[in-house]
Amino acid sequence: MALPPVAVLTGVGSCLPERVVRNTDEPFARLDTSDEWIRSRTGIESRRWVEEGTSTGDLAVRAGAAALRSAAAESVDLVVVCTTTPDHHSPATAPWVAARLGLGPVPAFDLAAACSGFTYALAAGRAWITAGMARTVLLIGAETLSTITDPDDRGTAVVFADGAGAVVLRAGEADEPGAVLATRLGSDGTQVDLAVIAAGGSRRPVPERPDERGERCLRMRGPQMFSHAVRRMTEVSRGLLEGVGWPAGDVEAFIGHQANQRILDKVAELVGVPAAACLGNIRTVGNTSSASIPLVMDEAVRDKAVPAGARTLLTAFGGGAVWGAAALTWPDIPPTI
Fold first, then answer.
1. What is the pLDDT of residues 262-280, one digit of tens each?
2. Percent helix, strand, coil in the chain (nearest 5)?
3. Of the listed 15, 82, 115, 217, which one is catalytic?
4. What's the rounded mean pLDDT across residues 249-257?
5. Are 235 and 270 in contact (CB under 8 A)?
6. Residue 115 annotated among the catalytic residues of the structure
7. Region annotation ACP-binding: residue ranges (predicted)?
8. Domains of the chain
9. Using CA atoms, how far apart are residues 207 and 57, in angstroms rounded to an integer?
10. How far apart are CA 199 and CA 221, in angstroms?
11. Which of these is catalytic: 23, 260, 281, 287?
12. Element (H, E) at 140
C-alpha cells in the first residue's frame, strides 16, 4: 500500500511596507517611553507600517506572488490567508488574493488564529495534502496591525507592525528537504482577554459612546501574555520534539513567533534549543503576528543561513489563547532577488 503524500515546503516569499518607524520617530514622541525602554523590554528597534490605502490583501498578494516564483509554481489547489486584520469582515480576503494572483476558481479561505495563525495554516495545508485533497497549497500570513493599534497605548503601539510572509507546500516524500513531519496545536478560550479587540464584532457591534472608540483597537495584558506565551510555547515544542524523536539539542533552526525577544530567549532556554539555532528579525521588523514566522524563513533563505535538510522547529502563541508548533526539515530553496 502506498504511503500518503507528505507536505514539502518548496517556496517562500515576503512583503514588507517601505515605511520604517524607529523607536525615536515622531509617532512615539508623545508616549511615556524611550528607545532604551522599548529595546530593553521587547528587543524592537524599528518596525514597518503601511501607508494609508494599503491593505492586508495588498501585502498578501505581493508575498504570495514571491512565494509562487520561488517554488516555480504556476498553479495551486488551495489558498489560505491567515490574518487578524482582513480587508473586510466579509467577504474573506483569500478569494480576492487568489483572483489577483491569477489562480482561477481554487478553494480559498481566511484563517483567524492571531499570532499562531501560520502554525495553524501550516497544519491545515499539510492536512489537505496528506488527505489527497490538494497537491500544491499557498499559505500566506499577512497583517496590517497598525490599523488596529491605538497610537496612545504604549503597550501595543510600539510592538505591533505590518508585513506578509508566504510559503508554498507541495506533495512529496518524507525524506525530502522541506518535509513537514509533524504539527501540534492547542487553545484555551478561558484566556480570551489576554489580547482582544472588545468592539466591532457581533458581541459589541458599535461602541456606545465616542470615548469607547478605542475599544475597536487591540488591547493586551502584557505581563500575563508573557507568562502564558512562555509556558505554552515551551510545552508544545517539547511535546512535538518528543513525538518526532528529536532531542532539543539536535534542532538546527528554531523560529518562534516574533512577539518579544525576551519570550523567544526564554522559550529557547527552557526547551533546550542551542542559541546558535535561533533565528529572528524582531529587532528590525517588530511583531507582525501571523506573518512573523514566514518572514523570518524568507530572510533566512535569502541569507543562506540554514543548510537544506536541517532539523527545524517552529512555534507560536497568540491571543485566543491559541498556540502551535511544527517540525520540518529546512527546505532546499535557492534564494531569489
1. 999 999 999 999 999 999 9
2. 40, 25, 35
3. 115
4. 97
5. no
6. yes
7. 258-262
8. 6-172 (3.40.47.10), 180-329 (3.40.47.10)
9. 26
10. 17
11. 287
12. strand 136-144
